[in-house]
Amino acid sequence: MNEMSTDPAGVKTARSVQFYIDERPFWVDGTEAPAPKMTGTQWLIWWLSVAGKFFEGLVVFMTGVAMPLMASEFGLGATQHGMVGSASLFGILIGASALGGLADRFGRKRVFIMELGLFIAFLTAIIFTQNFAWLIVCLFGMGLALGCDYPTAHLVISESTPSKTRGGLVLSAFGFQAVGAIFGTLLGYVILTLDPSVGAWRWMYGVAIVPALAVFIGRFFIPESPHWLAVRGRGQEAETELQKLLKREPAYPTRVSVSEPAKPAREAKSGYRALFQRRNMRALILSSVPWFLQDLGTYGIGIFTPTILAATVGHQRAHAQNVADLVHNDLIAAKGTALLDILLLVGIIGAVLLADRIGRIRLQVFGFIGCAAGLFIAAQAGSYSGATQTTLIFCGFMLFNFMTNLGPNAQTYLIAGEVFPTHIRGTGVGFAASFAKIGACLTAFLFPVLLADIGTTALLYGLVATSLVGAVVTFVCRIETRGISLDGH
């Protein structure tokens, strides 16, 4: 069999990082060989990134199950109830903007390790929390770490994988947020069954410590992003890390020679000043505003689905007289929520299969419209009772969960990591995620208040409107990133 070469002419010249990640080998006679498979290191990076999204779904959505127990133990009122629901989201908001940009300054790998260490510290501390103030601090701290993971996890995947399959790989990792949501809800149900006490919520968080430690250790064994090193003018280090990333048997490529960007590109403005330059404004609006609008619905519905179901789907004991009644109501809500959360997973599977085929923008616009339809159906439940009411709520929420993960919940995350230049990519994704979490925090904090003041129906109609606005903004500011090389930014 003929030997393989990285160039049909047999000449080795300096290339971009993405060229080596994307390139297909040639036989020495110039015939193109099949594309090489992902290396073990590339898959390791993917799995370690998956974990961050899983933990986010686990913590944020499990809080919905744990919240009634926390409220009982600490005697929480409506405002404090909202603070518990929004604390981790506010932490994500701050972490994405304050810490996400660190990956542009100190490198992707260092921040990737640091963020999970921070998460483990607060995850451990919450188990021993004895008062409301420390409960909020711990939830905020976990959110801080998860917020940092928003840009960093995207970057370590997108900067290490082929352009043609990048969308599916990033979204399949992001989809583990839905897996975490389902697992967190089911875990809450199992723990409540085994330990029907007010303090059971501590076990819900405690069981995540061991897997988080395993992921933390694993992140020490990945290479630094060659893209980041090349843009920083560290070409020799980029070549070394690229060879680690693409290590396979038989060896291919056998040798790499990375071309560094021109000096003006290396010295371009960085940080938030660069984000607000005119040439980056369209990308900034596209990545931030639709994400904000979809988080209004996704997190509000996600966190308070147990509350809405318990109040409207029946069999709830209207006034919990004791711990047994409280746990009974929580178990009913947890079972219904777990069923609805399955549609999140189905939606992300659709996004993974379609993002690299029909494009990000089409899916996001279509998804926003579908979210509006689902919320509209659920809003009609207020005019009915009994089986009809239950059917409308479940059908509406199921459609919403499917369409949000097929469209805006997945695509906003994917687009944000692809529309900015490499030297400000972490800062850009961090800003977009942070801006989006303003919406998540608002809806998480205000939901219990608004549910009491204006009712479920009016609240759902409001979210119908924000979903439609999201579709319009996406279409007007559209930048399709399907299959583009990240070297082109």
TrEMBL record:
Belongs to the major facilitator superfamily. Sugar transporter (TC 2.A.1.1) family. Residues 45-482 form the Major facilitator superfamily (MFS) profile domain. The chain crosses the membrane at residues 44-71, 83-103, 110-128, 134-157, 169-191, 203-222, 283-311, 331-354, 361-381, 387-407, 428-452, 458-477. It is a multi-pass membrane protein. It is found in: Membrane. This is MFS family permease. Its main location: membrane. Gene3D superfamilies: MFS general substrate transporter like domains (1.20.1250.20). Keywords: Membrane, Transmembrane, Transmembrane helix, Transport. It comes from Martelella mangrovi.
